[in-house]
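Moderator note: this is an archived Q&A kept for reference. The question asked for a predicted structure of one protein chain; the sequence and the answer are reproduced below.
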Amino acid sequence: MQKADGSVETTLGGCDINFLTGRGIASKDLDDGKPVAGKFVPVALADWSDDSRPEPCEF
C-alpha cells in the first residue's frame, strides 16, 4: 500500500467493499475473509482519499 507521504507499507490481507450492496468482507494476515458488520454508502471518486476509506480497510 502506498501511503499519502509516498512511502510504501506491505501488509497481508484484504478488504472488499461492494458499495452497490452495502456489504463487504475483510481479512488480515493469512486469515480467511469475514463479513464486515454495518452498511456502507458510496463515496464519490472525487471525494475518495485514504481518510475516507471504510474503517475495515484501514490496516
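Archived answer notes: The chain has no helices and three strands.
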